[in-house]
Design brief:
The complex is a heterodimer of chains A (about 190) and B (about 190).
Chain A lengths: L5 H15 L12 H14 L6 H4 L6 H23 L8 H14 L4 H28 L4 H12 L1 H12 L20
Chain B lengths: L1 E3 L5 H8 L4 E8 L9 E8 L20 E5 L4 E5 L12 H19 L5 E6 H6 L4 H13 L10 E6 L19 H9 L5
Parallel strand pairs in B: 1-6, 6-7
Antiparallel strand pairs in B: 2-3, 4-5
The chains are: A mainly alpha (about 190), B alpha/beta (about 190).
Chain lengths: ~190, ~190
């Protein structure tokens, strides 16, 4: 049995075939294929476009698939919130802290420990600020904006630390690199 | 926006609209797990390459992402979509891909000022397919994306591809018999009513 909904669609197909005939048949390897494409372009230009595309659009996925996607998104969101709410967010800072330790090692600064903690404090401040921004974006469902503050929090870290170190560096004096520099920050 | 089942010729049409010239060459098509396995066949080839818009010669879709071509003459942007298999059905990989493609298509449609839909219907597949399932499936896709789809039919153009005779070259037949529009109408469209 032919679904009622399909009838207008078939009538439209037949009407198009009656009106435009062989212009609707695409034969790419024919010599006059491009001339034929001119006819197709003309047909495309002349059909009435849908104007309000946002209004006519609906999600094509079944309720079941939409439900499973919603559940997957909710789970992902919970993971992000959990990650932002604990110290895990700062594991991203680890490479930068290691970078800092290498810089300190190379430069042999005198007030190394003080500067190291000073830099870590700055990182922590940045991370707290960015984490708040990320959580706010997440709560507001502004998902593309969630990653931005987190990336920024750490991407320019080495640059800021280098600037800090260059400002303070005193090449004449040197000091030994202390052992057991903390690589973790606590944010609560 | 071009819609059609895998292999209907959406990417080929996009290339044609971009001015590509095609010729037929003998190439290996199909895969080991295809019904007939890999075999040599006459296929359409072109020198033109539109980034992200590969022309496939197998039963699986070569188009993974939406690709666009802007036509300066008509001031239209043509969007090639991946072939749909199981929109909203099942929970396998196809569904995941269709879900991702659906999101991309919806996003693209939303960003369009106006929308024209082009359905590509393979005459060969239509004749092979019992009860003209291909046309039915295309309408179902449109019905899923567009509210009150039947009210928007004036925005739909249907083009018919693979109309170079039947049976296919795969079975060693010569392809000299071109199907005309009237034959498409009688055999392809009405077949669905049988």
């Amino acid at each position: 049995m032919l679904p009622d909904k399909l009838v207008p669609f078939l009538k439209h197909a037949i009407k198009l075939l009656e009106e435009h005939g062989d212009d609707l048949l695409v034969r790419p390897d024919e010599d006059d294929a491009q001339q034929h494409m001119d006819a197709v372009r003309g047909l495309l230009r002349n059909i009435t476009p849908m104007a309000d595309t946002a209004a006519v659009l609906q999600c094509p996925l079944s309720d079941e698939v939409q439900m499973s996607l919603a559940l997957a998104c909710a789970k992902e969101r919970d993971h992000i919130v959990e990650g932002l709410s604990c110290n895990r967010v700062l594991t991203d800072a680890r490479p930068h802290l290691e970078h800092l330790a290498l810089l300190q090692d190379a430069l042999r600064l005198p007030d190394l420990v003080e500067m190291y903690f000073d830099a870590m404090k700055k990182i922590r401040g940045q991370a707290e600020q960015r984490r708040t921004m990320a959580l706010e974006a997440l709560e507001a469902h502004l998902f593309p904006q969630v990653c931005k503050p987190l990336n920024r929090a750490f991407s320019d870290c080495p640059k800021r630390i280098c600037t800090l170190l260059v400002q303070r560096v005193s090449p004449e004096t040197g000091s030994e690199l202390p052992v057991d520099l903390p690589m973790q920050l606590d944010i609560h | 926006m071009l819609f059609g089942s895998t292999g209907a010729g959406k990417s080929t049409l996009l290339h044609l609209l971009a001015g590509a010239k095609f010729s037929r060459e003998t190439v290996e098509v199909g895969r080991d797990d295809d019904e007939f396995g890999p075999y040599m066949d006459q296929q359409l080839v072109t020198e033109m390459r539109i980034s992200g818009c590969e022309i496939g010669h197998s039963r699986s879709s070569a188009t993974r992402l939406l690709s666009c071509y802007c036509d300066d003459t008509t001031k239209l942007t043509y969007v090639d979509t991946p072939g749909f298999n199981n929109v909203g059905d099942g929970d396998d990989d196809d569904t995941t891909i269709d879900a991702a493609n659906s999101a991309a298509i919806m996003r693209t449609i939303r960003s369009c000022g106006t929308l024209r839909i082009v359905f590509l219907i393979s005459v060969q597949d239509q004749l092979n397919n019992k009860r003209g399932g291909q046309i039915k499936k295309l309408f179902e896709v449109m019905d899923k994306f567009i509210k009150d789809a039947s009210h928007h039919l004036p925005s739909v153009l249907m083009l018919f591809t693979h109309c170079d005779g039947y049976p296919s070259a795969k079975q060693g037949e010569e392809q000299n018999c071109h199907v005309s529009a009237s034959l498409v109408q009688s055999s392809s469209v009405w077949r669905i009513l049988m």
